[in-house]
Amino acid sequence: MPLNSPVSGAWSRRDFLAVAGLASLVPTYLARAAAASAGKYPIGLELYSVRGELAKDLPGTLKAVAKMGYQVVEFYAPYFEWTAEKAKNVRQQMDDLGLRCLSTHNHIEAFTPGPGLDHAVELSHILGVKYVVMASAPKEAAGVDGWKRLCEQLTTAADRLRPEGLRGGYHNHQPEWQRIDGDRRVMDIIAAHTPPDFALQLDVGTCVNAGADPVAWIKANPGRIRIVHLKDWAPGDAKAEKEYRVLFGEGVAPWKEIVAALESVGGVEFYLLEQEGSRFSEFETAERCLANWKRFRGELT
Description:
- The chain is α/β, with parallel strands linked by helices.
- It has two domains: about 10-40; about 40-295, Divalent-metal-dependent TIM barrel enzymes (TIM Barrel).
- About 45% of the residues lie in helices and about 15% in strands.
- The strands form two sheets. It has an eight-stranded parallel beta barrel, surrounded by four helices. A two-stranded antiparallel ribbon has the order 6-7.
- α3 packs parallel to α4 and α4 (about 85-95) packs parallel to α5 (about 115-125).
């Protein structure tokens, strides 16, 4: 029965205006809900995206990234050469800018027991890092046995990191989606032979490029996709600004389904935009990708 109507099926002017008013609030409610959900997950930048600027001026690059609105940064391999004093200086700069570094990309030495792993722990504590991620596998990781041996090393490192309040992780590229043992892919082997708290950092673009299904992968590994590289991809020629040169949201990755899976079962804690290059400068690329992400999340119109 209509609201406040004395006769079934009869709508008063008051009823109509009340319902119309509620309907007008729906878009606003949905936008606010989307923004609230987005606020739970910090958005960051893999600094490889601005590698040229970073090499020239680290403090200036951090300032620029913070001014754009990024909340998190991920340092990649060169950071590992820093001394403790250098790391402390960088941490102070980040604190002043309101930036956090929650993960780093590393080579095999950071996962090798002894000075390498010890240095990774030291730098992680100074920078405030939570996840020490292997950026890419060494050449020795070949064949099923080679990948299993790497997983043993990653597990040993994870055991060393855990008491320090740190977690290990692995970042995929295209080759890890190849089948090397019947129906099993390299990523299946890594997931099966590393601890449950070992993060499987999903690079969406390389996953899509390899023909794998990122949504199915997320659902198959609940709680382990804690960090995501928001890299897009489109079929075509890089010279025509396709492949990885498309900005976030311009490619073929099914972002709506990916994000829904990440936030319902994947266990995502924060997002990282990453760009290998585009038709724009490094800073403009990072800024445009962030704007696209915010529009996707309902934070911009």
